[in-house]
Every structure is written in C-alpha cells, then in structure tokens.
Amino acid sequence: MNHRTARTDARAKAGVRGTAGRGTAVRGTAARRPRGAGRWAAAGACALLAVAVLADRVAAGVAEDRMADRIAARQSALVAPPSVSIGGFPFLWSAAEGTYPEVEVEGRAKTEDGLPVTASFDLHDVSKAAGGYAAAQARAEFKVPLDALGAKRGPGVRLTGHDGRLEITRSVMGVPLVVTAALKLTGDTVTLEATAASLAGRPLNPANPQIAAALKGAERKLPDLPLGLVPSGISVDAAAVTVHGEAKDVTLPGEA
Fold first, then answer.
1. In CA terms, which of 46, 80, 114, 249 is 20 to 30 Å from 128?
2. Average pLDDT score over the chain
3. How many other CB atoms are there within 10 angstroms of residue 178's CB atom?
4. SS3 at position 111
C-alpha cells in the first residue's frame, strides 16, 4: 500500500465516523422532543383546569347572588342584602343534581321594636323540593348587641358580658348597683337568675326580693324564628347576646 492509498482510506474512515456522530446527535434531539411535548401537555392541562375552576366559581357566585336577592325580597326585616355562600366543589355538578351539601347565609335585620340583629344560618343537605328547596338540617344564630339592649332598658343602664354571664350596671340614687345574672332559655322565654350583686362596691344577697323582681320584669319572650327554627339555647359574650335555633326538614320557598 502506498502513502496516497493510506491517506484515502483514512479520509474514508473519518467520514464514516463523522456520519455516525451526526446520526447520534439526530437521535439525541429526537429523544428530547417527547419531554418538551410532555411539558406543553402538562401546561395545557393546568390551564384547562384553571379555566374549569374559574367557571365553576363564577357559576357559584351567580347562584349565590340570585339566592341573596330572593331572600332579600322575602324578608322585609333585612336592612341590607344578605351574603350567601354555597359549599361543595364542583358547584356545577351539585347544581346539575339539584343538591348542595352546605349553604351559609348571613344578614343584618331589625326586630319589630328596632333592635339590630345579625342572623347567621347554616343549612345542610339542601336539595330540590316541590315549590323550591328543602334542607335536611338547619342551625342559626341571632346576635343582638349588648349596647342596643342596654339602651332599651333606659338611660344609665350598661350591659356587659363576663365569663358567659350578663353584668347589669345602673345608678340607684347616684350609687352604682351591679347585678350579675345567668341567662336561661325556658321554651321560648329568656329568663335571668342573679348570681352576684353589689351596691357601691359592697356585696348584696343576689336573692334579694327587689333584685329578683327587677330581673323578673326583664324576662322576654322570643319572637317566632324564621324557617320554623326552634330556640335551642342562649349565650352571652363581651359584645352580644346570642339566641341559637335549629330545625330539621326545613322548607325554603323559591328557586335557588
């Protein structure tokens, strides 16, 4: 073999090796393409999911607004449209079936004698029924501010809540009389039982007939609660007295 033939064979082998290298590079690029396509597919799926969730929440918001409007139209005691929250996801699935696992309603109203009330309703297993909807169970709270209750008792009366009991302060001949009472619910009537009393800082017998008579005069019968709710308890905190109510198989007129 001469030198010219050797150089020709070397160039041929180098060409083969170069072609093999380029083929390997092509195969590497082709192998990377499915991974890129997978990322685009995942991004597209996330975008579709986000759109579906947004559409579901928009539909829920529309239904909540419609329900709030219907409640406002039927409850003349409300001083502003209530807020409504329909639980359960996806909402559109529940709407198609005509059932909602939970519906929460909160609104502000006034009693016939002008007391402000904040009402909160928690309705469970709401479903379509003849003429509207029905809830398997309902619980509610009706909060009345202590300052508003005190103003109804007359000038100089102050009501505060401590440790679940009501503290009544008023002036008697310029001297502060303080009576602490436990609130009780007997049927639909709110009663008060004195547990402590003081006059000008000196302890008094809470069973004093005059104190007992004053608390007896403060008893109040609750008005009928909406939706057929039955009073189930009463409590007091630092700011308000709360009446609790509950019922089963509640009828909700009108469509949601």
1. 80
2. 78
3. 17
4. coil
Backbone angles phi, psi at 255, to 5 degrees: -85, 150
pTM of the model: 0.73
> How does 55-77 read in b/e, with b if 16+ C-beta sit within 10 Å?
ebeeebeebbeebbebbeeeeee
Mean pLDDT computed over 142-159: 90
Do the Cβ atoms of 48 and 40 come closer than 8 Å?
no
What pLDDT, in 10s, does the model give residues 99-125?
888 888 899 998 888 889 999 999 899
pLDDT at 204 over 60: yes
Distance of CA 214 to the CA centre of its chain: 38
**Which residues fall within 8 angstroms of residue 205, CB to CB, at 6 or more apart?**
197
Q: How far apart are CA 103 and CA 122, in angstroms?
A: 6
Q: Give the Å distances, CA to CA, from 29 to 21, 26, 103.
A: 13, 5, 55
What are the angstrom distances between the C-alpha of 233 and each of 102, 185, 195, 242?
A: 22, 6, 19, 8
Q: Spell 230-249 as b/e; 16+ CB within 10 A means b.
A: ebeebebeeebbbbbbbbee
**What is the rounded distance in angstroms from the CA atom of residue 17 to the CA atom of residue 44?**
42
Three-state DSSP state, 102: strand
pLDDT recorded at residue 51: 52
The DSSP call for residue 198 is: E
